Amino acid sequence: xxxxxxxxxxxxxxxxxxxxxxxxxxxxxxxxxxxxxxxxxxxxxxxxxxxxxxxxxxxxxxxxxxxxxxxxxxxxxxxxxxxxxxxxxxxxxxxxxxxxxxxxxxxxxxxxxxxxxxxxxxxxxxxxxxxxxxxxxxxxxxxxxxxxxxxxxxxxxxxxxxxxxxxxxxxxxxxxxxxxxxxxxxxxxxxxxxxxxxxxxxxxxxxxxxxxxxxxxxxxxxxxxxxxxxxxxxxxxxxxxxxxxxxxxxxxxxxxxxxxxxxxxxxxxxxxxxxxxxxxxxxxxxxxxxxxxxxxxxxxxxxxxxxxxxxxxxxxxxxxxxxxxxxxxxxxxxxxxxxxxxxxxxxxxxxxxxxxxxxxxxxxxxxxxxxxxxxxxxxxxxxxxxxxxxxxxxxxxxxxxxxxxxxxxxxxxxxxxxxxxxxxxxxxxxxxxxxxxxxxxxxxxxxxxxxxxxxxxxxxxxxxxxxxxxxxxxxxxxxxxxxxxxxxxxxxxxxxxxxxxxxxxxxxxxxxxxxxxxxxxxxxxxxxxxxxxxxxxxxxxxxxxxxxxxxxxxxxxxxxxxxxxxxxxxxxxxxxxxxxxxxxxxxxxxxxxxxxxxxxxxxxxxxxxxxxxxxxxxxxxxxxxxxxxxxxxxxxxxxxxxxxxxx
Length: 647
Hints:
This protein is of the alpha/beta class.
């Protein structure tokens, strides 16, 4: 890391640091305290995000994730900043991050390997790979395509003379020696390039030496071209080199793309058959020359997204209607109207609670406004209008953003007489950080983890696992009675998150085992419905597994609990176990199965869609597509259709 004292926008004497990869730093994100990190090369998913100027990619220790951070929010790790920040009392997550960076200083191999894996280009399919698929050949196999990718500029290798550097007389001589087989390509540089390439005046001796070197290079190139022409004339037709085979394949493909380039009228059947074999070999050659990333893009199955389910404000649950619920006099705020949040808010409105709502997509609030709820523009506005605020979003990052971010909960500095209830599925450390922030602003905090599906939420049959402030738990009694059949208060903040993630681990492992067993039964040609009926008669039966098994048998993956949420829970469990050095091999494998199913396109489907990871019909479908490809190769028009179909 080097200092540059001359770089200053305001003209003062402030120092500006120039950071390089592997530099240890302090990074400050909006809404968070300074955190230990390291400058790294950005991973692919971060490159696709919009970012401001003068930013660096930072790897954060402890959480081990990446983010773009502006340079004025970055300071060197060693120095006065370290001594100042080390004296301040920080939460457990910060202490874990400091231990993580000390571990990296002692042994950087583990974290460097993780960073290299996250930033590796070979494991991701990019837009450039898709462009190669569309063009049919890689850039190294098609020089013209490589030139197009560089806007027509051919790179010049230092130490290898170029014809453009030779005097005009030498170039004309080379063109004359090339004959008709070597077409003359003339490039006219623009005025801008001429201005940039205008050389300084040279001495007469330097000009003489340059002319002599250019003459020798031109003579050598002319001799090499003549040698290649002689070799090409002597080479038999059937014995072609690998490079010549690639050029032939490329030439055939260019002829096929031009409808008028090939005339089959009057051609004999033997010539047509020979040409068809050449075209087939050329096309199959392009398939084998594609990169692994290109093949991965083509082999991904096409999965239709599930239809977005709109909330029906007129439907009522019979179970909920039979309950005797007296609504609280307090005003309840609700942040997040996703799959679970919208169902909970609907039940609260139905039972007479006064609700104020906010959602990132404002259109989702309209049905609740018509039912009697009040909508606000920002989370801070909801906090001002409500006594108890519930939050139910998709992940820990979203939960933290609503609390610490712009227009978030903590933008209201005094939360006296306010209570915050976190219902999002988060890890214990995140819950404790949120609770600490709420308490510092004189507020009360309760974590209330919800366990169950969307249908169970609609029927008021959820399980509530709570921890934190007991008075908030009692004040939310009417709300919990509306949406849950049982509630449990588990003591301190973090206990409810741990219990909920443990239950999700049992569910995830059970679903993968059920899917694997049903896939085996299908391979044996045993009816899946028969397996489920027999399973219902055993002591292993479970209402949840029976319902998921029926969904797998039907192939109906209507989302009750999205597969991406299940995989998120497994990831949180593994991170929690990693901090305790607890081995969880089965859960690790289960997490990988869900990750692969997400890659197949089932992220937004129900968690029972994990069955698609084992179902053999997918490979059968790919075999049928391969057969149709070979059948289309029997005609040139079919070959042209296949080339365009791959775009």
